[in-house]
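User: quick one, fold this
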Amino acid sequence: MKKISVIIPTYRPDTYIFKCLESLLNQTLPKNQFEIIVVLNGDKEPYEKQLSEFAERFGEQTIQILYSEEKGVSNARNTGIEASKGKYLVFVDDDDWVSPNYLTNLLSQADPNTIVLSNVVAIDEDRKTPTQHFMSDAYAKNKGNKNVSLFKIRSYFSSPCGKIIPRNVIGDNRFLRNFSLGEDALFMFDISRKVKRIQMASPDTIYYIWIRKNSASRSHYSYFFRLKLAMRTAWRYTTIFLRNPFGYHFPFYLSRIVATFRKLFQKTYK
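Assistant:
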């Protein structure tokens, strides 16, 4: 069994995905200890050919290219989970990249009951300089802590990226395919009941986020759309919580509800 499965969902990828893949191929962790699974969804060509040609340069066992006709990042991630063989899962978005020591450092602190969080650096697409990001702020506040609480690090549970997740924590849980926004946070909340410990990796263990203006999470939506989505998302959090009310961290659950309705005052999702 591979130690780590890296899952990358992609839709109509641009050249930035090759920077993402190169950062993973340049890891200090030996290549026989991890696999890279790229799940292309929606439009197939010329993207599959381009990805396959890139992967062939490194051998079939290093990068696996999967295709799903169904569009959607949730479906792509679920496809990757099903195909993965690693003891631990690492999610990377196709326009992001990681430091060379990323997998080594995360794995060195991982165990079956622990999620290890990396440092996060967001880069503005236009200025090519670091910019503010909620996970960067959360890391700065908690770095150096050997065992942080779920509530203190709640911002990290808005995304599956920037961390290493044990397979047994994910279990049978999957990303909701009928949510196009907020599905990441719902997934992370769902699996939070199985997390016994949270650790912070060293500051040089970096997940780089490429902040693009045209990404779905930064698009503008009407107030009616945001209200409808907030009600639906809050109800979903509640149904998850009520399935096992003593298994979930109640303050963390409340923070998810508050964060959901706070988006009513934001025209962009980020």
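User: anything notable?
Assistant: Residues 223-243 form the longest helix (21 residues).
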